[in-house]
């Protein structure tokens, strides 16, 4: 029988986003957080017989509202947030750069279903290349006039898939094309968009946008925002694949999001839309030499969301799995997260506690104090990573001569020993080290 169990995670997992490289070590750790392997280890460590199926959330699997991202999820996946949402869980996010009250927000609709039936017809011109397809499917709830908190997603709210194409300006990736698709797979709005700032790279191989296409376009971002308010009701669910990038380009916030890159992630790793379309929908997209078609991508995204609601949620490959702290809570155990503030917010559940820290010395102190009342301890130690990522590149075959690194490793050994020695029997320690020299990747 195990006296203690220790697991480690040490490498960065980079992912590409429009604003540059973002190195997210938690992507690997999320495999542990939701993985059945980790759950099995915990069950063995605690000598309890529990199956992963016991931890499925009690949701209506036919209701898209059951699969929208929570506030913590929106923050974790770097969606733009509004201050009033942030204030709902003060101290939970610590990501002030995500708070964007200056962004457009769809105003509250008067009655349920009213905006869904809005007339979205528009004049088609060669210059704007703007078109409008049949109006969105009606989700009229009759004369119901219940009052909903904006934080609460209405049951069986209408879904609209959005896909945007962006081009690079000096300051950012700016919106240049958008498509909106309803649940009938009808394109209810599509338009080319001319950014206010000069474009320095059209990224045509991906965006499909050329200088000639935008030469006569007069539609601006503000026009698109106004049209979205006419087409999409405020209580609707927006569907997209890594939709945070589209919302940043739209300079828009929305509370109710279904992200197919999250729904169909495998072991915490997101899959490309093109791959999901090929493997699940049995269709090919993004095959054109002229770049991506946002209408095609939006339709594929909506199909994926609809597939998940009918069949995909039954596939254990895409199941949300077992959050280890939920497992601890279900087995009357306690947990603690000693990490950066955002991780504390993201993974704590039930009786688990978060201890936000900024350096290893404080982390060890907090961990040792938390251990007597903790069965599952998550601990981040990052001083070695800061040493590796210093100003001077490491020469890997001469690491033994790096005195700073050797001192940092000795300190790491002492801190690990202090924490491990304090662990009681049948406890589980998960340590994140963040090791890896990522300067070349960042460059």
Please describe the structure with a list of short key phrases separated by commas or semicolons.
globular; 17% strand; 5-stranded parallel sheet; 6-stranded mixed sheet; 443 residues; single chain; alpha/beta; 33% helix; 17 helices
Task: Describe the protein's architecture and organization.
With 443 residues, the chain is of the alpha/beta class. It is built from 17 helices and 15 strands. It has helices spanning 26-34, 36-46, 71-76, 83-88, 204-207, 211-214, 221-231, 243-250, 260-263, 273-281, 294-310, 324-330, 341-347, 360-370, 383-388, 403-422, 439-442; strands spanning 4-9, 14-17, 20-23, 104-105, 159-169, 173-181, 187-192, 199-201, 237-240, 252-253, 257-259, 335-339, 353-356, 376-380, 427-432. The strands form four sheets. Strands 5, 6, 7, 8, 9 and 11 form a six-stranded mixed β-sheet that branches. A five-stranded parallel β-sheet has the order 1-15-14-12-13, sandwiched between helices. Strands 2-3 form a two-stranded antiparallel ribbon. A hairpin with a 5-residue loop joins β6 and β7. α1 (26-34) packs across α2. The protein is globular, with a radius of gyration of 24 Å. The relative contact order is 0.15. Residues 10-28, 51-58, 90-94, 110-149 and 437-443 have low confidence and may be disordered.
Q: Helix count, per DSSP?
A: 17
The separation of the N and C termini measures 48 Å
Average predicted local confidence, pLDDT = 75
The percent range for helix content is 25-40%
Shape: globular
Strand content: 15-25%
List how many beta strands DSSP finds.
15
Give Rg in angstroms. 24 Å
Largest sheet: 6 strands, mixed
- Runs in which pLDDT lies below 50 for 5 or more consecutive residues are 10-28, 51-58, 90-94, 110-149, 437-443
The computed structural class is alpha/beta
